[in-house]
Structures are given as structure tokens and as C-alpha cells.
Amino acid sequence: MILELRDICSGYLEGVDVIRNIDLQLPEGSATGILGLNGAGKTTLCQAIMNMNPYRSGVLCFERLNVSELNTEQLSRLGISMFLSGGNTFQELTVWENLLIATGGGSTKEIDGIRSIFPVLSGSQSELKSKLADKLSGGERNQLAIAMCLLSSPKLLILDEPSAGLSPTAIKTTYKILEQIRGERGVTILLIEQSAELVREFCDQLCVIENGIINNLNN
Prior knowledge:
Largest sheet: 6 strands, mixed
Distance between the termini: 15 Å
Structural class: alpha/beta
Strand order of the largest sheet: 6-7-8-3-9-10
Shape: globular
CATH superfamily of the domain at 3-88 and 154-218: P-loop containing nucleotide triphosphate hydrolases
Order of helices and strands: EEEHEEHEHHHHEHEHEE
Radius of gyration: 17 Å
């Protein structure tokens, strides 16, 4: 298992757990989907895994190592990356500048290595250097955000509702990209969605979270 959660509890207010007693295992190279309504605890679970919202109890293991005490940056360096709902990009910067930030000072060869996966990056380098991120459509912004996640060379990619607010065409493009990332790079994926159809088509295993508790698991 690349990721194991054991009895994880987390919340935003002292003494109030949004997620409770979460047990979850992600096989390496798999795609696991978590379905749930708004407020069910999906995003809280993602943030707890990344220690963006610290969990109060439980154990988190990544590649068989107990990483419960590591902060978000340390988890990222180990190989966990997260896409935030809506696409987390620097809107005042160009597409190219966003990509450079994501490399962490690495070579632009890393950017060239992923450009073929993302239609939004198909233009010339000069075009990407002149196009501001705030001029992108919602689907293009999501592509850029996923590309930035990929530039950290993740072993595990967590996606919080990548289809939210997108047109059917943009959703289809997004999932084609995710299939390519998984197939060509072997990245393990944890997918948070509200659409059961999307999750069933893409994922190997399906969890349903309700009122902060995972109450169903289909393999």
C-alpha cells in the first residue's frame, strides 16, 4: 500500500470532528474514488492527509513510513501532491511563470516533458510566457493546476473535485489527462468527486463518505 490511514479524526473547531475514525488503504498505482455530498467531509479528509488541516488522532503511513508528524511541505517532498478544487494557480502570473514556480527552481526540461499531456500548454514557449493565468477558462486553469502538481513528480496525486464547474467537454478533457498521467507515469490517484458516474468509470475502488464516516467500500 502506498498510503494507509488508520483511525483518522480531524476538524476545524476544537472538539468538533468533521471526519471520524477514517480507515483507508490505497494500493500503489491504483485510482481510488471518494464520493459524498457537500459537507460530508471529502475536502477535510484531503486536507488532513496533507496536514493542511491537522488531524487530532490516528496514524498516516506513506510507503510504509509513519508520516503523521510531517508538515505539508515535507509530505510534498516525499511525493504527495494535491489539486485544490477550482485550480490553485497564481492568477497574476503568466502560464510559464506558474510552471516555473512549480518546478521549484528545476530545469525547464521538466516542463517540456509534460507539455504534450496538456492542451493548454501546447502553444509556443513565447505564447505561454505572454498568457496570463487569469485569462484562462475554468478547464484550462484546472489543466494548469494539474500540470503544476505533476511537476513535483508525485507518487500520489490527490484531486479535490477536478470536474467542479466545468463544461462536459472540459470534464472529458480533464479525465483524458488523468488517464494519461496514471497510465504513462504510474501515479496513484485519490479522486474526490460528487459525480458517481465519473468515479465509477475512472477508479478501481470506490468509497462513500457520509457525515464524516466512510460507510461503504466497493472493490
